[in-house]
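Dear H.,

Thanks for agreeing to be a second pair of eyes. The structure we're designing against is below in token form, covering all 290 positions.
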């Protein structure tokens, strides 16, 4: 069956970004001129996803409004002949987006469970709203290509520095069935650094079969007392194979302050409008601060 649907969980509390996230979802914080979630939606579109469900909590309205049309603004830009800006504004409305609210942020697993009716009986992808991925072929498309081969759930993983494994879900890899595609013995959420089975961490893209929902419905809270998607995937792996696909592109975790700053600088240094000024400014600033 073709993968057509994506779920973007964006209902977390974003505590690492307080007070900015008191009223605004962290997925709406902009990288240069686009909210983070727009990068994720663009990756979905490029991958051939047709329908997207955004799981929202607080700050829901700005997300909905961002992807809706704004007739007065569009007319104003038309009248003033600002066609480039008009194109940018119109681009955001060209996608089938649906919204559902997770009233209590009980964890990523609980957020994904909210998508049960939307997904129905189809395989689907989960794209975390605070993880931007860059590669020649979008990571979501890479997972969809794997699925065409295996017809099984496949998660994206990436090597991370060993001392950081306790922040992630980590896999205990078995053999590689194809280059970069692992069979997995176990999935462990936030292992202690000295107990982690590998340095291959689950990053923000998952392709899942609909059987994940029966696991989530009976999933007990795990690390951080939250319903962990990783724990449900570990149980799914006991009844049907779940693979891990190693991502070799660039990952930008914008869910914490330093990651957000690094991403803003790197994207700024590539942005045609600001790159020259930003690069000159950084050089000048580092001389000044020496
Ligand atoms: P994170 O753990 O990175 O997000 O969840 P958080 O909880 O918002 O952030 P901090 O740790 O408090 O700063 C990963 C993704 O899962 C979503 C988040 O919005 C984020 O995109 N999420 C998490 C939910 O949608 N619901 C939840 O209950 C938890």
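And this is the sequence the design step returned. I haven't edited it by hand at all.
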């Amino acid at each position: 069956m073709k993968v057509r649907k994506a779920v973007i969980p964006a209902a977390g509390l974003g505590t690492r970004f307080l007070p900015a996230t008191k009223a605004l979802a962290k997925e709406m914080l902009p990288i240069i001129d686009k909210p983070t979630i727009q990068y994720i939606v663009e990756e979905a579109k490029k991958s051939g996803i047709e329908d997207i469900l955004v799981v929202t909590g607080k700050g829901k309205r700005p997300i909905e409004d961002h992807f809706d049309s704004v007739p007065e603004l569009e007319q104003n830009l038309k009248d003033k002949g600002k066609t480039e800006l008009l194109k940018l504004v119109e681009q955001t409305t060209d996608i089938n987006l649906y919204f559902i609210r997770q009233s209590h942020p009980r964890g990523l697993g609980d957020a994904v469970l909210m998508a049960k009716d939307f997904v129905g009986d189809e395989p689907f992808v989960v794209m975390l709203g605070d993880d931007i991925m860059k590669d020649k072929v979008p990571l979501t498309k890479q997972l969809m290509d794997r699925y065409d081969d295996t017809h099984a759930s496949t998660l994206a993983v990436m090597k991370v520095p060993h001392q950081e494994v306790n922040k992630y879900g980590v896999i205990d890899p078995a053999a590689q069935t194809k280059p970069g595609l692992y069979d997995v013995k176990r999935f462990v959420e936030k292992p202690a650094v000295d107990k982690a089975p590998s340095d291959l961490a689950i990053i923000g893209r998952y392709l899942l079969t609909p059987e994940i929902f029966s696991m989530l419905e009976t999933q007990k809270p795990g690390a951080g007392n939250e319903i962990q998607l990783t724990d449900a995937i570990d149980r799914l792996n006991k009844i049907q194979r779940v693979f891990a696909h190693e991502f070799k592109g660039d990952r930008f975790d914008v869910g914490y302050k330093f990651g957000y700053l690094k991403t803003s600088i790197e994207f700024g240094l590539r942005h045609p409008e600001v790159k020259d000024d930003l690069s000159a400014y950084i050089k000048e600033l580092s001389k000044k601060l020496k």
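Two observations from my side: The first strand starts at residue 5 and ends at 10. The two ends are 58 Å apart (CA to CA).

Warmly,
E.
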